[in-house]
Amino acid sequence: MTTVAVLGSGIMGSALAIPLADNGHEVRLVGTHLDRQIIDSVRSGGIHPGLELELPASVSAYQLEDAAEAFDGAEIVLSGVNSFGVRWAGEQLTSLLTPGQLLIAIAKGMEADDEGNLRILPEVLVEPLPEEIRPQVPVSAIIGPSIAGEVAVRRDTCVVFAGPDQVALDRLAEAFRTDSYHVWTTTDLLGAEICAAMKNCYALSVGFAEGVLERIGGADDAYRAHNFEAALFAQGSLEMRRMVQVLGGRPETADGLAAVGDCYVTSAGGRNVRVGRLLGQGMGFSEAWERLGHITLEGAAAIRVIGGALPKLTERGIIGADEFPLLRHLYEVIGLEQPLDVPWERFFGGEPDRRQARAARATVPAGDRTLTADPAMGAD
Amino acid sequence: MTTVAVLGSGIMGSALAIPLADNGHEVRLVGTHLDRQIIDSVRSGGIHPGLELELPASVSAYQLEDAAEAFDGAEIVLSGVNSFGVRWAGEQLTSLLTPGQLLIAIAKGMEADDEGNLRILPEVLVEPLPEEIRPQVPVSAIIGPSIAGEVAVRRDTCVVFAGPDQVALDRLAEAFRTDSYHVWTTTDLLGAEICAAMKNCYALSVGFAEGVLERIGGADDAYRAHNFEAALFAQGSLEMRRMVQVLGGRPETADGLAAVGDCYVTSAGGRNVRVGRLLGQGMGFSEAWERLGHITLEGAAAIRVIGGALPKLTERGIIGADEFPLLRHLYEVIGLEQPLDVPWERFFGGEPDRRQARAARATVPAGDRTLTADPAMGAD
Fold it and tell me: Residue A78 pLDDT more than 80?
């Protein structure tokens, strides 16, 4: 039995309180400044409004101003904010974290500098910590296919805890692991984080298929566009593998849970897929995002960051110009508001005989070649 | 423009007539003895009853007794039968095939001998051919995520043509490739066939999730079991990769279209997933198969063959006893009619600290440990 402080009471941070509580641990859930109503709700009747579930009695909830009390004596600290809150969370941790506490985080995403150098979020999280404390805080991350609500209702879930320190990982895994929450560990934090960030990009692209089907009038067809989805999924899996290699992660991290496993569950639905569907219908990204009420889209954010870094990495000779064709096009669509036009012939190393046809087509004015009336789903 | 003879007028063989016809080729569709009504239908009004579509006018249909006429002068021969018809098709080809014809096949599956040696189906297909002709018939195979009906209505589809002879592959790809039917080639026929056969096994297992959810009364829950599906999908992708390695295929074949791409589309629905769902509900395999009207189940067949070979390969020291835990359990469920009890703790190289718990549990009599009342979906 131990004590775990969770910073951020969104659905994932809160869902993880369930396996912890099932293991008899005391969980202290600390809301961010955006979470006041969640904390009020948990304090008054135990209900987490996002999960629509009652949290166990051993979970106590704290408003942000009481965070110091919540962190006091905690062995484990879970950073439960998403990628947009990582810098904020790091700043909070400078005053809250004490050396010796085990830190684990859930945010998925990357940051890039002007030269296209990509950084994983655990690095960003601990950046505000004083330099003398930072080496004493080996930050770990939870990676893998886990829809928060399913964790909360104890559906079988398999995840990877990734971090630089095996001793810390073993202790964290022991604290979280239950009969339904299955935990493996890896010291390839870099590779696992790359997959975690990129899978959101490719899951978004899987959403194109339904939208394209609707655009060509096939919304009610018996035949869907699963072949289309599967091809994008497969190309995405190759691009994740390649990026792990480029940035120096371990190849085996791109197998299994962190990459295809997580991409599979993310492709099954959710926000990224919904925006992908609108893009498939022919909507521009800004319009699609507005239609969805400017919701948080970690996939679109990751496309802007990682996709935006690709031309710089190409210019520097780190990757080839023909690599990452799907992510490059995702950046064109989401970062540059260009129309969707899936570059099939550039996938899987390039389809023989098709490059020339594509080059010829590219000379047609953009207005004439967008989104097409071809029965072949229009995307090529 | 060329002539293509298709042996077997099931939905996939017939769907492939569409890209061929779109490329201006003459397609001669030959029904098996089981296809008489299909051929009658195509001959009388052009409608393929399985696809529920009218085939192009350049597709002509032949009853089996007219096969010689259909094969006469054909440059390309497509074996359109499924895995259960491969031996039969090979025997037909002994009298029909002429040296120089390019042979390509679609069946997915494997065969095993008494020692557990696994063979791919293209080898089985050409086995009946006279020994002096066999080397002149480099048989290729179509691999990758392609639902037949989607190919027939020209949805974007990405496939791999695999075979030993690059010149043959290039010619075949050229004949089939259209703006919506995208074709890559590989000379790793072995690796591609292994993935094609095994992906059906793992897609079947993905179907467990919905069934288990129904069994625990969660059929109408807002929270599904996507984490469960994704974990099985991920474990399956690792087992495909490993089998490619064990049998001497190329590692990169286990990336992309042939493995995760095809497994993705197969997991999206179909017969294998349906039987998996019934098994998840707690039904035994025989009962589930009867419930489905004894339909053709390539996934179940592949589980019996490949899963049945695993103990023999283990005994011979070719694979470790802890390898292929998912496929071994699939064999227990489908080959040996044992109850479903997902061995999570053996996945991904083994979950630390859980093996002992599992061993202890295994000492409980089978009747007491089946299918559980645990809220954690019961499978562990």
Answer: yes
Task: Please give the pLDDT value at position B266.
Answer: 95
Separation of alpha carbons A138 and A123, rounded Å = 10
For chain A, the residue count is: 380
CA distance B311 to A148: 38
pLDDT (average), residues A118-138: 93
Q: Is A251 on the interface with B (CB under 8 A)?
A: no
CA-CA distances (angstroms) from residue B334 to B266, B299, B311, B342, B369? 18, 10, 15, 13, 18
Per residue in A315-352, pLDDT (tens digit) is 999 999 999 999 999 999 999 999 999 999 999 999 88
3-state DSSP call for residue B278?
helix
Give the residue carrying structure tokens 């390039």.
Answer: A350
**Cβ density class A307-325: b for 16+ within 10 Å, e for less:** bebbebbbeeeebeeebbb
Strand A26-30 to A3-7 pairing: parallel
How far away is chain B from the Cα of A179, in angstroms, using its nearest Cα?
A: 7
Cβ within 8 Å of residue B158, ≥6 positions away: A227, A230, A231, A234, A344, A347, A348, B144, B145, B182, B184, B257, B261
| C-alpha span between B27 and A307 (Å, rounded) | 44
The Cα–Cα gap between B234 and B202 comes to 9
Q: What is the DSSP string of A247-293?
A: HT--GGGGSTIIIIIHHHHHHTSSHHHHHHHHHHHT--HHHHHHHTT
Tokens (6 digits) for A336: 């540059």
Interior angle at CA B131, CA B130 and CA B134, nearest 5: 85
B202 forms bridges with which residues in the sheet?
A: none
**Does the model's pTM come out above 0.80?**
yes
Give B359→chain A minimum CA distance, Å: 14
- Minimum Cα–Cα distance from B258: chain A residue: A234
Q: Say if A65 is an interface residue toward chain B (CB within 8 Å).
A: no
pLDDT in tens, B179-221: 999 999 999 999 999 999 999 999 999 999 999 999 999 999 9
The answer to whether the CB atoms of A157 and B228 lie below 8 A apart is yes
For residue B27, the cross-strand partners are B4, B59
Question: pLDDT digits over B227-255, tens only?
Answer: 999 999 999 999 999 999 999 999 999 98
Lowest-pLDDT choice from A50-59, A192-201, A205-214, B349-358: B349-358
Percent of all residues in chain B with a pLDDT value above 90, rounded to a whole number: 88
Mean of pLDDT values over B263-267:
96
Sign of CA dihedral B322, B327, B332, B333: positive
pLDDT classification of A133: cutoffs 50, 70, 90: confident
Type of residue numbered B302:
A
Which DSSP symbol is given to B46? S
Check residue B323 and report its DSSP letter: S
Of A224, A342, A237, the C-alpha closest to A280 is A342
Average pLDDT over residues A66-72: 98
- ipTM of this predicted structure: 0.93
Report the C-alpha gap between A26 and B161 in whole angstroms: 56
Burial class of residue B51 (count of CB atoms within 10 Å of its CB; 0-12, 13-18, 19+): buried
What contacts B89, CB < 8 A, 6 or more positions away? B7, B8, B32, B79, B81, B105, B107, B125
The whole-angstrom separation of Cα A27 and Cα A93 is 17
Which of B25, B199, B242, B271 is catalytic? The answer is B199
What is the length of chain B? 380
Within a 10 A sphere around the Cβ of A74, how many other Cβ atoms?
22
A312 is catalytic: no
Per the listing, tokens 């079988």 go with A156
Asked if residue B359 has pLDDT above 80, the reply is no
Q: Which residue has the tokens 């089985």?
A: B124
